[in-house]
Amino acid sequence: MLAANKVDGGMQEADALALWNLGVGEPYPISALHGRGTGDLLDAVVAALPDQPEGEAGTDDEGGPRRIALLGRPNVGKSSLLNRLADEDRVVVDSVAGTTRDAVDELIELGGQTWKFIDTAGIRRRFRALQGADYYATMRTGTALERAEVAVVLMDVSEPLAEQDIRVVEQVVEAGRGLVLAFNKWDVLDEERRVYLEKEIDRQLSRVSWAPRVNISAKTGRHMEKLVPAIETSLSGWEQRIPTGQLNNWLKELVAATPPPVRGGKQPKILFGTQAGARPPHFILFTTGFLEDNYRRFIERRLREDFGFEGSPVHISMRIREKKNGAVGRASKGSVRPDRKPRGRR
Ligand SMILES: Nc1nc2c(ncn2[C@@H]2O[C@H](COP(=O)(O)OP(=O)(O)OP(=O)(O)O)[C@@H](O)[C@H]2O)c(=O)[nH]1
Ligand SMILES: [Mg+2]
Asked: What is the pLDDT of residues 8-53, one digit of tens each?
């Protein structure tokens, strides 16, 4: 919801209308000071809320075609890839960076299935430093990512992997979406550059080693047939569930073989675990003490080895139960994300 504030009287209403230009929907003219227009804004907010709170099952499941966002910094070939997949020129391609300014949804038939591909504006360097049109273009890309189930992050192999590329990948992980890494412009990759590229991938993308990779050329059509299987892999990893019984048997064996490290003279125990949700998979471990970051990463690694979850971020959080006079004591949460420090104790 876009609120245009400080519209204290009818005079400023016209100014508020200019905010339509931002392309983020209807601006609601309000005055926070006087309360003018806030009723209408509230009505609009309530109308936009779902009738029922989002439940575990069917969360963001709109039905219809699967939604795939094409993401990457400007000029990596997102629009070219969309055109190649559609087998016709549906969106504008240009050698100038920043050609796509708005997210565009396109239905494309591939492998006997209809997909919704979302072409997006290239993500610019630093979101916070962006201004004006770039800021809103990048914001709309973020919204497109939220709407998607899986993101294909494109990288241009003719240039060194940049911090920008890594940031786009992190954004996908943070949004909890499935991930496919697409190394584009493979047609212009020479032997020498290829050696460097492999090193860059090892060094900078090891945190998402679980993501399927495709080496493609939107220009020549190289390995287009590999894209859908990679997307399907990520979708199924993203939706995967482990039954609670199976998970707990597995946890018991894991902990018996490799117990959590002692912390403050105490050995934390894992009492019980459950997969609280999917899309992406989220696990909750009930423990008697804090599990170190390293140990939770170890659990994630082993989960992936034994169950897959290919192409999807996996979240592991914990609830600490400390018995004090029989009462349940302090609770604590943590979450394993490759790009973040744990939130630690609360
Ligand atoms: N050699 C080569 N060039 C490519 C390939 N894919 C795209 N290009 C070129 O890269 C340039 C940018 O392509 P676009 O598809 O517009 O890139 P984009 O990611 O949509 O860019 P923005 O919309 O600006 O973010 C164009 O000149 C394309 O022709 C490829 O596989 N090989
Ligand atoms: Mg584009």
From this structure: 988 888 889 888 888 788 899 999 998 899 888 988 888 888 776 5
Cα 166 to middle of ligand 2, angstroms: 19
Q: Is 312 in the pocket of ligand 1 (CB under 6 A)?
A: no
Write out the residue range of the structural domain in which residue 167 sits: 66-239
Q: What is the 3-state secondary structure (H, E, C) of 158-223?
A: CCCCCHHHHHHHHHHHHHCCEEEEEEECHHHCCHHHHHHHHHHHHHHCHHHCCCCEEECCCCCCCC
Which of 70, 93, 158, 186, when mutated, tests ligand 1's pocket best, judged by the most ligand atoms within 8 Å of its CB? Answer: 93
Report the nearest-CA residue for atom 30 of ligand 1. Answer: 185
Q: What is the tally of structural domains in the chain? A: 3
The answer to whether position 53 is within a domain reads no
Q: Which amino acid is at 252?
A: K
Are 153 and 195 contained in the same domain? yes
Residue 233 in domain: yes
Q: What global pTM score does this model have? A: 0.78
